[in-house]
Amino acid sequence: MRKEQEGRLGRRRRRRRQKNRRTEEQKTEEQKTEEQKIGRAEEQRRTEKNREEQRRTEKKNTEAPRRTEKKNTEDRKNTEEQKGRTEEQKRRTEEHRRRLQRGSEEEETERRKRSRSRREVREGDEEGAGGQARGKKTEEVEEPKTEDRRTEDRRTEDRKSRRQKTRRTEEQKNRRQKNRRSEEQKNREEQRRTEKNREETEKKNTEAPRRTEKKNTEDRKNTEEQKGRTEEQKRRTEEHRRRLQRGSEEEETERRKRSRSRREGEWRGAGRGAGRRGVLTVRWVSGTQELGNLEELQRQGERPTLSTEILSPHLPF
Question: Which residues make beta-bridge pairs with 286?
């Protein structure tokens, strides 16, 4: 009785250990599956990131030469325009300087003429009679000389005014031209910026649908792949569960068969002496037929075969 109880306890412990082992294996498999899923998702993110980085690099390598060439063309154009404006300004400055120089030379010539005329008049006065006569002659000559000098001064002032007016007109004209060139340059810059922004906008509007479609295609593809992997994982998990279930059912069936066989077959010892002689008394149950005592069967010349289904848990086999 004690041995039978110990056998039942041993079977329970074995079943419990097997159940715990199956549970642990299932947990390990689920954890492994989850880690694989996380690893695949991380690998997919890294692949997508690398693909996006490669696309940006290719785009940069493709557009950089065009941008460089465009910038170099703009720089050359601006340099030529600036060089032309500088040459034009130098030419106009030189012309203005020459005009001023000619005006100052003419003015100096006129001044020298007037000085020589006055000197000649003075020398003529000094050569005449002295004293009062000379004073009278001087007074007589001074009147027309003063009138001539006024006339000459007016002419000088007029020429000076005309030169100043001409200079102011030229300066105003230069300022207007400079302002006009600055305005034209500003307009050209604004037009270039507008054109560049328009091109960028058109390019963006043209490429955006393609990028969106490509991204949607990639997302659909990734979704389908993920769905396929999920279905495959579910299928494998279901197969694993079924295998475990079949194993547990087979084990339970085997256990029930052994239990039923133990209930149907009984083993009894025939005493100490008989046990020492190796003689056992057996009730062999096969269906509803009782085969009888092993010793009697052996005397009758029969050799019954023991089945593992009816072995007692006491026996070593």
Answer: 289
Distance CA 27, CA 188 (A): 73
Report residue 300's pLDDT band, with 50, 70 and 90 as the boundaries. Answer: low
Residue 310 neighbours by CB distance under 10 Å: 20
Backbone angles phi, psi at 155, to 5 degrees: -65, -40
Is-contact 314 3, C-beta < 8 A?
yes
Extract long-range pairs of 97-100: CB within 8 Å, 24+ residues apart.
Answer: 99/166, 99/170, 100/163, 100/167
Q: What is the pLDDT of residues 234-290, one digit of tens each?
A: 888 888 888 888 877 888 888 888 877 776 654 444 334 333 344 444 444 444 344
CA-atom Rg of the chain in angstroms: 63
Residue 177's contacts (CB-CB under 8 Å, 6 or more residues apart) are none
Nearest-angstrom CA–CA distance, 171 and 175: 6
Residue of 242, 95, 88 lying closest to 180 (CA atoms): 88
31 pLDDT more than 60 = yes
Looking at residue 207, its pLDDT comes to 83
Average predicted confidence (pLDDT) for the chain = 76
C-alpha span between 259 and 253 (Å, rounded): 10
Identify whether the C-beta of residue 138 lies closer than 8 Å to the C-beta of residue 125.
yes
Q: Say how many C-beta atoms besides its own lie within 10 A of residue 32's C-beta.
A: 10
DSSP states along 5-58: HHHHHHHHHHHHHHHHHHHHHHHHHHHHHHHHHHHHHHHHHHHHHHHHHHHHHH
Hey, what's the torsion of the CAs at 212, 216, 219, 220, to 10 degrees? -170
pTM beyond 0.70: the answer is no
Long-range CB contacts (within 8 A, 24+) of 42-51:
44/222, 48/218, 48/222
Cα 208 to Cα 115: distance, rounded to the nearest angstrom: 86
Q: How many residues does the chain have?
A: 317
